[in-house]
Specification:
It is a multi-pass membrane protein. It is built from 11 helices and no strands. By secondary structure, it is an all-alpha fold.
Length: about 250
């Protein structure tokens, strides 16, 4: 496992574009926070920072899934890697998780920009809990990226689906509208989506006392675990199809 971590670290050094989220989201935050300050809505600064972090983490994970597999395609190592599917699955999972975790510092960047640059009342009442929930959400979006990577192995044109996996899921995650305002069927789907639980937990952890913390953390952990299980299962099935010749690998 240490070998995979070291290899991914070297890849990050050679691929500075993977740090785009760290650089781009803070620039967007200048617009968001300027709007809040100009319209005297500073009380929304913490929620805005959390929402921007979650959107950035989700989009970063979704797009990094194709980057990982496409890098292997470009280097001509994908076909060879699939000769040892178990090792490749572990490597792919580790690489996806480590790359997705690059979005974590964005939360701190948003808080710092809002407080130090604009002087807005950014408040985090439970910093330890906030960091824990942010890490769990990052694991969840990394699992989503792993699921996407299975599709990328099968269909090269799957990149066109990536945009469809951003804004609809922002809606289901309660990042655009409160989950309670969604239509009935969508509301039930959102309640089974880890991002909606993580988003509300982050908001509550920043604001103050968190009701039903133990239950909500347990639900979030279970949903993230299920997402990871589905991602691993999907990639394992794809690799099995490729090895048995039921699916032709797109190079």
């Amino acid at each position: 496992m240490l070998h995979f971590v070291r290899a991914q670290a070297q890849m990050l050094i050679r691929s500075p574009q993977l740090f785009a989220t760290l650089l781009v989201i803070p620039f967007y935050s200048l617009v968001f926070f300027h709007f809040l300050k100009s319209h005297h809505h500073g009380g929304l600064a913490t929620t805005t920072a959390i929402t921007a972090f979650l959107m950035g983490a989700w989009s970063h994970a979704v797009f990094v899934a194709s980057q990982t597999v496409d890098d292997d395609r470009a280097q001509g190592t994908l076909s060879l890697s699939l000769l040892t599917p178990s090792r490749y699955l572990l490597a792919l999972a580790m690489r996806t998780l480590l790359t997705a975790s690059l979005a974590l510092p964005v939360l701190g960047e948003m808080f710092l920009v809002g407080r130090w640059v604009f002087g807005l009342p950014i408040r985090v009442d439970r910093p330890g809990l906030t960091l824990l929930v942010a890490a769990l959400v990052t694991a969840g979006v990394a699992a989503t990226a792993l699921l996407m990577s299975g599709l990328m192995i099968l269909v090269r044109a799957a990149r066109s689906l990536q945009n469809a996996l951003t804004y609809p899921f922002y809606l289901l995650g309660g990042l655009i509208l409160p989950v309670a305002t969604l239509p009935g069927p969508l509301r039930w789907i959102a309640r089974g989506f880890f991002l909606s639980w993580g988003a509300q937990l982050l908001r509550d952890a920043a604001a103050g006392p968190v009701p039903d913390l133990g239950v909500r953390l347990t639900v979030l952990c279970v949903l993230v675990g299920l997402q990871a299980a589905v991602g691993l299962w999907a990639v394992r099935r794809v690799l099995s199809f490729v090895r048995t010749g039921r699916v032709v690998l797109h190079d």
